[in-house]
Amino acid sequence: MSTQPISTPVAAPPPPSEGRRIRPWSGFERVQGILFVLPALVVLAIFLIYPAYYTIRLAFYEGDFHFGFFHYLGIANFKQLLTNDPDFLDLSKFPPGGALINNLRWVIFYISISLIIGLGLAVLAVRVRYERAVKTALFVPMAISATAVGVIWLLVYNTDSNVGVLNALWHGVLGQHPVSWLGNPGIVNYALILAYIWASIGFVMVVLSAAIKGIPAEIMEAARVDGAGEWNIFRRIMLPMLSLPISVVTIWLFINVIKVFDIIYVMTTGGPGTSSRVIAFTMYEETFENGRPGYGAAVAVIMLVLIAPVMVLNVRRFRSERVVA
Amino acid sequence: MKRRKSLVASAVALAVLAAGLTATAISAKPTRHSANSIEVLSLWGGSEKDAFLKVTAAFTAQTGIKVVYTSARDFIPEVRTRLAAGNPPDIGILPRPGYIGTLAKEGALKPLSSLGISNSYMAGNYSAGWLKLGSSGGKLYGVPAKANSKSVIWYKPDSFKKYKFKIPTTWAQLLAITKAYKAKGLVPWSVGAGPSQSQWTLTDWFENIYARTAGAAKYQALFTGKLKFTDPSVATAAKIMTQIINNKYVLNGVQGVLGQSFVGSITDVFGTSPKAQLFFEGGFVGGIATGQVNPSLKAGKTIGDFPWPTIKASLDHPVVGAADFAGAFKDTPEVRQFLKYISTGTAGKIWVSTNAVTSPNKKVPASSYPSPIVRAEVKQLATAKTFLFDGSDLLPGAFGDTWGFALQDVIQKPGNIKSILSTFQNKIQGQF
Question: Which of A54, B44, B76, B135 has the fewest CB atoms within 10 Å of its CB?
Fold first, then answer.
């Protein structure tokens, strides 16, 4: 198994220097260029641009079961979602609830914990002889489908302490009353987040550990010769040099978290009640369960609005980055 | 120069390939089954699926028409997706009459009369109550396929004998047994209304209580949109439900209810290491308990059932039940033949011989049922003075699930029943 699934930007070739003039393209080269891009453009237009346009347009309609543009509503769907749908956004109580707020919980806890644990493991793993074994073990959950992850964690969280590992510890070892981790609206979101973190840290660790290996050894040696401690090396050399891969991983995690669906579908179907719904799950529920394609499309548009700026930021960051080893 | 040429060639090849793909994507027609075969979509799995496959095998043997069975756990999203794609199954087994209305209004279902199955023929095989449930807008769309009583409570006869409990006939007696079990240090009930869509068990609790406290007329009105969920009778019934479903009397408390699945809760009571004593759900529990959970159970000794007790003496004990209906999305000669076949007594007899289902078909006699547990259920269904259809299944679209979610809130916060009910009423307002 390759432990370097994506090439890290640290090792990217330097951008063309400002001074070099690029020779104007000949006609043949132009045609060639267009031909090269054409297949990608065609595929992109059919499978991305057209559906996106369709969904955005549908969000302003009620929609019928053929997903047709039936009964124009204007922005009524969005208004209803953001002001009058406590399952999507409920600011009337404290802490606020609804799918949007749940997703915010996911963003905060899933991203930060995955990053901290992933980075910690990456830094520690390079220092031991059995690095390969550790990495392989931690990467395995990444190869399990989210559905299987859901089933595994359903067992872990089982209320029966003879089945659920967590309750076996809680009840059997600590002598506490068994807890229904997925049945308590106050816990269920964190229980789901934990399961998803388990499935993702392998990836974070592998990417960051590859980036760490890309940091030239001379810099660290020089720092050590100058008397820098290990903490200082991590804080002042590793972290700054890892800032680009960390931001890439963060964006990957962010997109992952905004579109999280499968694990919730398998483990709680948004319950108990509607307390573990997230944006993507609401979209599915409204479109297919409740048969409201227009309303579901509006949820999808909100999701797109949340993801798009992060994507733009990501692309820009890649362009402007001048970190070259 | 040679390299460049080959590059251009491959670019052109790619473009052609992409264009080709596009063309296929656009011209792709819904897959057509070979003639002489039909597709049936249903959410049945396990013993219910096996029983149905026995019926389809008999159909194939008789007519030579092959039946492709497709299982969809999430029935309605699957149907909606396939309808939108113009590729619906030939026949769908609709798990709720509520769906019949929704799909018929969208023009997706074919009325039986247009398929050569006359109303008078159907009336000869099914009672008027069933046919009404399979109808929408005065037209009959669904063939009642299988039925179940949901007004039975499961217990352990040996344990009742040991503690000298009598079969309770009133709610007060049931509560007394519950308290007596608790006093002996046992957990009286297990309820599974949690992960993997088990919230429907709570709707069945509510329905049985509501039918016994508000009466059949209000029950019908409530679940058909003529009575609001904010009616005081609803809150009263919900409150009575929490007399049993609370932290004192159910396994692992209310949190345990929300963390346990339906089959898991059967295992809690009838599994090989039982933790609770009483269980409520429909007649199908018998098949799951003896077939799936614990084959060593013995009817009349380690597992038995009694009818839901009365709550208000004047309202007696109406039977709440449920059924699945077969409806056609396409009109082909094979579909016509299949629907006709499964509505016959012959098909019904094969079906019930598996012990997995009971048949609403009048031409299936009680003697065709091998198991005594199932026979008792059939008797209850046949002799019920008042038969009420599962209310949550009558609610439009997926509101049956939404209602279950609301009841999950009720058992967690019995103090907030009123506001939970008014929130639900706001959601369902205007949906009927």
Answer: A54
Of A236, A299, A250, A247, residue with least CA distance to A89: A299
- Is the four-CA dihedral B104, B110, B114, B115 of positive or negative sign? negative
Q: Which of B74, B76, B258, B403 to mutate to test the interface with A (most CBs of A within 10 A)?
A: B258
Per-residue model confidence (pLDDT) at position B31: 46
Same fold, B37-148+322-378 and B152-317+395-428: yes
**Domain range A94-320, its CATH number among 1.10.3720.10, 3.20.20.70, 1.10.10.60, 3.30.70.120:** 1.10.3720.10
DSSP symbol at B243: T
Q: Least CB-CB distance to B22: which of A46, A160, A288?
A: A46
Min distance B350 CA to chain A CA atoms (Å)? 33
Encode pLDDT of A155-180 as tens digits.
999 887 788 899 889 888 888 777 88
Residue B384's φ and ψ, nearest 5 degrees, are: -60, 130
Which residues, in sequence order, are CB contacts of A194 under 8 Å at separation 6+?
none
| Contact criterion met (CB below 8 Å) for B264 and A188 | no
Beta partners for residue B305, in sequence order: B154
ipTM over 0.95: no
Contacts of B84 in chain A (CB under 8 A): 65-67
Domain B152-317+395-428 listed as CATH 3.40.50.300:
no
- What is the DSSP annotation of A142-188? GGS-HHHHHHHHHHHT-SSTTT-HHHIIIIIIT-PPP--TTT-TTTH
Q: Model confidence over B288-298: pLDDT tens digits?
A: 888 888 989 99
Angle between helix A293-320 and A76-83 (nearest 10): 80
Cβ count within 10 A of residue B383? 9
Considering CB atoms only, which of B74, B256, B273 is closest to A183? B256
* Average pLDDT value for residue range B336-340: 95
Backbone angles phi, psi at B146, to 5 degrees: -145, 155
Distance, in Å, from the CA atom of A296 to the CA atom of A58, rounded to the nearest integer, reads 9
Is residue A260 within 8 A of residue A196, CB to CB? The reply is yes
**Contact (CB, 8 A) for A5 and A320:** no
Type of residue at B415: G
CB contacts, 8 Å: B423 with chain A:
86
Q: A72 has which bridge partners?
A: A61
Q: Where are the domains of chain A?
A: 94-320
Strands of B304-307's sheet, edge to edge? B187-189, B276-280, B152-155, B304-307
When computed from its CA atoms, the radius of gyration of chain B, rounded to whole angstroms, is 25
CB contact under 8 Å between B194 and A182, yes or no, is: yes
Which member of A35, A38, A65 has the closest CB to residue B80? A65
* CB burial of residue A314 (10 Å; 0-12, 13-18, 19+): middle
**CA distance linking residue A41 with residue A117, whole number of Å:** 39
SS3 at position B140: strand
For B70-106, what is each residue's pLDDT tens digit?
A: 988 788 889 988 998 889 999 999 988 888 988 898 8
Hey, which residues does B310 pair with through a beta bridge? B170
Q: Domain-by-domain residue ranges, chain B?
A: 37-148+322-378, 152-317+395-428
The CATH superfamily holding the domain B37-148+322-378 is: Periplasmic binding protein-like II (3.40.190.10)
- Hey, what are B252's tokens? 């692992």
Let me know: does A161 contact A178? Beta carbons within 8 Å. Answer: yes
**How far A135 CA sits from the closest chain B CA (Å)?**
33
> pLDDT value at position B117?
93
Nearest Cβ partner for A273 among B7, B398, B409? B409
C-alpha span between B111 and B117 (Å, rounded) = 9
What are the residue ranges in chain A where pLDDT is below 50? 1-12, 323-325
Q: Where are the alpha helices (DSSP H) in A45-75?
A: 50-58
